[in-house]
Amino acid sequence: MATLLYGLPMTGGYKILVFLFLSFWISTIQAQEYDFYLEWKGEEATSIVISEQEIPHLNVRLLGKAQKIAGSVIIDTNTCFTPYFPFSIGTTYQVFNGQKLLFTFSPDREIKAPEVQRVYPLAELLPENFLKFYIQFDQPMASGHVYKYLQLLEEGKPIENALIPLQPELWNADRTLLTVWIDPGRVKRDLGPNKKFGAVLKAGNTYHLQVNKGLKAANGSTLNQEFVKAFKVIKRDEEIPGIRNWIIHAPEKETTNPVKIDIKEPMDYSTQHFMEILNNGEKISGKYTFVSDTSIHFKPENVWSDGSYVLRVASKAEDLAGNNFNRPFDRDLEKLSKVSEQEYYEITFSIE
Amino acid sequence: MRKKLLTLFVGLCFASALFAEKTLKSGFVKGNPEIKSINALSFGPEGILFVGDSKNAMVYALDTQDEAVSSDKPDYNIERFDEKIAALMGTTVENITINDIAINPISKNIYVAITHSSGKPALLKLTNNDNFEPVDMTNISYSGQALDKAVAADAKDGRGRSLRMWAISDLNYSDGQVMLTGLSNQEFGSTFRSIPFPFNKNEQMSSLEIYHAAHGRYETDSPVKSFTTTKLDGKDYIVASYTCTPLVVFPTSDLKPGQHVKGRTVAELGNWNTPLDMIIMEKDNESYLLMANSARAVMKIKLSNVADFNGSLTEPVEERSGTAGVDFIALPFVNVQQLEKLDDQRFVMLQRKADGNLTLWTSNDRWL
Question: Could you tell me the CA-to-CA distances from B105 to A120, A297, B45, B54, B355 in Å, in that order?
C-alpha cells in the first residue's frame, strides 16, 4: 500500500514556475490523499486500485497526454482501473476524476534485464550458403523492432542488407527464440543480388553476428550487454543431407538415460523438432536436447523397455544451407534429378 | 381443436425455418475466442472480419456488427497515427507494433491490429475519423478454424505448445475461401492455405507448397509475403509476391490439396526489398496492382500486362537492384507500410512521412 501525492508535471520556463507555485498553493488548500496500490501479475502491473474511494469518472492518462487510456473501471468500495495493456514500468501516469487531476503514479519494480544465451548454429565454421540463425534469449522479448538491433559484420565491417527484416518477426510461441534469415535473395543462385554481388558470406572470411544493446524484453527492460557470435566461412554446401550415416548410441533398458544421436553433418537447430522415436508404431514421449549441431539427445519420460525402436526424421529437416532430405535449397534445373516425395526417413535401433 | 393448433404451430415453425435468413454467420457462437495474436486482417461480406492468429494456429471470423452502409465517407487523414494509438493504450510507440489494417467494405470503418511489447494483441476500430476504440474480443459472435492438423501434431514444448511457428503474413477472403500465407520459423518453404467459408470442421483445407522457377537455371521454394486475388482474361488468379520480390501469378484452379504449385514469375521488382502489402484498383476498365515495399516506392502494375506476359522470366536480372518482366510505374509514395482499398475510387495508405510522422491518409484514382 502506498500513499500519494498530488502533483502536476510541467515543462519549461517562467510561466511554468508560476504555474507550479499556483498548483502547490491550490494543493495545500484542496489536498486530498489517495491510498492506492497496483496489482501485479508477475512483472506486469495489471490494475490500479484506489482504496475506499468511489471515483465516478475515473480515467487514467499518460503524463502530459489528453487521451484517456483504454481499459475498464470497477467501482465498489474501491475504484479499480484495469488498462487494456499492462502499465509500463518506469512510465508516469496521471489519474483523473473527469477532468480533475487526482494524483500521479509510476509503476516500479525490479525487473531482470534480458540476456542472449546462445546463437544456433553452435558451429564456428559455416558454409557460404548458410541460411539462418536462431537467437536464444533467457526470457520473453518484445517483438516488432528487433532488426534495429541486429548486425552482421564481415572482417569487422557491417554488411548492408545482409539480414532480411521480415515482418512478422519469426519468434517461437513464448518469444524466447528468434529465427533470423540471411537475405535469401543473395543466397539463391542467379537471383539479381546473388548474380551481381555473390553470396553475403565468402569462404575464408571471418564474420560476427552482433545483437546490440537496447533490444527490449517483454517486461520493458533492455539488453545491456552486447552479444557477439563469431564464425568463419567455408565452401558452399549443395549436397542434400541423409541419415544413413547417422550413429545411434542406445541406452540400457530400465533406465531413462538419453538415446544419443550422432549426426555426421551439422544440421539446423530445428532438426530436433522433426524427429520422432517410435516403438511398435507408438510415439515415445520425452525431451530432445540440441547438444551441438552434430549431436541430439532424447531423454524419455518413462524408462526404456527392451525392443526395437525407430528414429523417424521428417524430410523437411534442413542442414545449415537449407538443403533438406528431399531436395537441395536451390535446384539446378539442368542437372535436376526427380525430387523425392518421401515424407520421412528412418533408422532402426535396439535397446537391450 | 388441439390438433389444429398443433398443426398450425408446426406449420409456423416450418415457415419460419423456411424464411429464416440464412447468413454466413449462421454457425457463429457468442463468447470469447481467446485470440492470442492478430497477424493479419481481411474483411469478408456481412461485416465479417477474418483474423489470422499465428499463436493459436487459427483463423477466426468475427461478427463486427458494423453493417451500416456508408457511401460518403470523408477522406481519412490521421497524423501521428502510432502516437495516438500508443496514448490510447497507455504506452509509447516503441512498445506498439501495427500488424495490419483492414477497411470494412460496408461501413468503410478502419480496423487496426496491434501488438503490445508484452505480446498481447488488440483490435482497434477507428471511429469519427480520429478516435480509436478497442473492439471487445472477449464477448463476440465468432467462428474459428484450426489451420493445420500437421502443425498441431508437431513437436511440443514442456507446456504443450508447438515448437514450430507459422507466422501468418497475409490473409484474404475471396469468393467463399479464406486464403492465408505465412512464414515458418524453422523451414524455408512456402505453404499457402485455402479454407472454405463458412468454416466446416469436417472439411479439409487445401495446403499447397509453392515454388517458382524463374531465374535462369535454378528453382527454389520461397515464402509468399503478400498476395491478392484477381481475374486475368476472365480466369481467377492469385498474384503473390515473394520475400525477395519476384511477382508470381498462378491460377486459383491450380490450388489442389497436397499439390506443388509452380508460380509463373512475371516480374522481378528490384532487390534488397521486401513486399509489404498489395491491393487492386480499377479505372476505365483497367485493373491495377498497387504494391507497397520495404525499400522502394509504391509500384503500379497494369494487370493486362501481367495477363499478356506469357511464360516466365528466364533471364536473370543483371543490374544492381535491377528489375525485369512486366513494366511498373513507381508512384511518388515511399515508406508506405499498409495499403487498403477504401472504395472504387480511393485507397488508404499508412505512410512514414519524411519528417518521421506516421500518417494514415487517403489517395485516389488520379494516380491510376
Answer: 45, 53, 8, 25, 31
Cα-Cα-Cα-Cα dihedral sign, residues B355, B359, B362, B367: positive
**Please, are residues B250 and B227 in contact by the beta-carbon 8 Å criterion?**
no
In whole angstroms, how far apart are CA B287 and each of A39, A213, B284, B307, B364? 55, 47, 8, 11, 14
Q: In the numeric block, which cell numbers belong to residue A241?
A: 543431407
Q: Tell whether A92 lies on the interface with B, counting CB pairs under 8 A.
A: no
Distance between B73 CA and the closest CA of chain A, angstroms: 24
Give the C-alpha separation, B348 to B327, whole Å: 24
Topology of domain A2-105 in CATH is Immunoglobulin-like (2.60.40)
Under an 8 A CB cutoff, do B39 and A168 touch? yes
Nearest to B277 by CA among B168, B170, B136, B158: B170
For β-strands A344-351 and A307-314, DSSP reports them as antiparallel
* CATH number corresponding to A247-351: 2.60.40.1220
DSSP tag of B254? G
Please tell me if residue B222 touches chain A, with a CB cutoff of 8 Å: yes
The answer to whether A98 faces chain B, any CB pair under 8 Å, is no
Residues of A in contact with B127 (CB under 8 A): none
Question: What is the ipTM, given to two decimal places?
Answer: 0.83
**The CATH number, out of the four listed (2.40.50.140, 3.30.465.10, 3.90.380.10, 2.60.40.3710), of the domain defined by the range A116-234:** 2.60.40.3710
Please state the three-class secondary structure of B156-193 as a single string.
ECCCCCECCCEEEEEEEEECCEEEEEEEECCCCCCEEE
Which pLDDT tens digit goes with each residue over B179-200? 988 877 776 667 788 888 999 8
Residue B257 has which C-alpha cell? 490439396
The SS3 assignment for B304 reads helix
Q: For the segment A277-288, what is each residue's pLDDT rounded down to a tens digit?
A: 999 999 999 999
Q: Count how many domains chain B has.
A: 1
CB B179 within 8 A of CB B192: yes
